[in-house]
Amino acid sequence: MRDLRIVFMGTPDFAVAILKHLVENNYTIAGVITAPDKPAGRGRKLNESAVKKYAKSQDLNILQPTNLKNEDFLQELKALNANLQIVVAFRMLPKVVWQMPEFGTFNLHASLLPEYRGAAPIHWAIINGETKTGVTSFFIDDKIDTGEIILQEEIAVLDNETVGTLHDKLMFLGAGLVSKTVDYISKGEVKTTKQPDLEEKSAPKLNPENTRIDWSDSLDNIYNKIRGLNPFPTAWTIIKNNEEEVSAKIYAIRKEVEEHNYDFGKIIATKKELKVAASKGYIIIDEIKLSGKKKMDAKSLLNGYSFSSEAKMY
To answer: What total of structural domains would you count in the chain?
Structure first.
């Protein structure tokens, strides 16, 4: 068994679960690298990353470099004397960093590589209607998510899955996979598999353009897109109601398959139900947030907001 000294690199909640698992299973964490504090909110108060908050609670050594090639940071990193680095939801590392430890640097990615390389693999798996996804550990190389695969674990994607529920399942699945990967490295039993050079299904960064709902798309595609963006960053649309236009974020939904003659995007509202016409059916909206207002269930919205007979979403 090799005696491992680990440097952990990560930023969001997803990474915290993995770091917590390592700490609770008594792995030696020589240091934690996370993003610098960022000003947030109206008061522009400095906000610490989720990983930093947890690392502080465990009295772990924390580094927050702005530049990963900075000589002072590289000296500090070297001084930690780690022989393994683990990366979870961080940023691309320069070669000088990922090549530093004796036993390499491995990453946990929330997809079954080579599918869904990129920034938002959990979202895009649901958006694209996948029935399975998973987690992959792989050794980092000089490109994004292309290194040799160590281990993978698969999970089903349910019909009513949201990115929120799938995120949490993959987070716990990933914690177990990281442990197995570390144990293999500790025992010197790692066997890797070269990734095939596929680029068919990618997971690009989400932005206002690719998160907007296209009501002329198929019913299933709209349903998958809204689920795959709920609760963050959320699918959005514009509501045109008489002369008023307001943007809205759509959260919890259901779908109803039914032939109709309405235009795509047409809003059909009763006192109890809000639904939108799509190809061969309707999207029934259970939770919505109008710009400048709080998120609310559809019934609450319908109590205080009336839609004209011509109202539509586009």
So the answer is: 2
**Pick from 195, 183, 125: which is nearest to 155 by CA?**
125
Q: Do 184 and 107 share a domain, yes or no?
A: yes
Range of the structural domain that residue 103 is part of: 6-202
CA distance linking residue 34 with residue 11, whole number of Å = 5
Asked if 58 and 31 count as a contact pair (C-beta separation under 8 A), the reply is no
Which region, left, alpha or beta, applies to residue 116 given φ > 0 means left and ψ of -120 to 50 means alpha? left
Which positions ≥6 away from 136 have C-beta within 8 Å? 108, 109, 111, 112, 113, 149, 151, 152, 177
User: Rounded to an integer, what distance in angstroms lies between the CA atom of residue 220 and that of residue 257?
Assistant: 10
Residue ranges of the alpha helices (H) in 83-162? 95-98, 121-127
Query: Among 280, 287, 235, which residue's Cα sits nearest to residue 256?
Result: 280
Please state, in angstroms and rounded to a whole number, the distance separating the CA atoms of residues 133 and 111.
6
Angle, vertex CA 53, rays to CA 4 and CA 121, nearest 5: 75
Give domain status of residue 212, yes or no.
Answer: no
User: Locate tokens 């996948």: which residue?
Assistant: 130
What CATH number corresponds to the domain at position 298? 3.10.25.10
pLDDT, tens digit only, all 314 positions of the chain: 899 999 999 999 999 999 999 999 999 999 999 999 998 777 778 899 999 999 999 999 999 999 999 999 999 999 999 999 999 999 999 999 999 999 999 999 999 999 999 999 999 999 999 999 999 999 999 999 999 999 999 999 999 999 999 999 999 999 999 999 999 999 999 999 999 987 779 999 999 999 999 999 999 999 999 999 999 999 999 999 999 999 999 999 999 999 999 999 999 999 899 999 999 999 999 999 999 999 999 999 999 899 999 999 99
- The answer to whether residues 260 and 176 belong to one domain is no
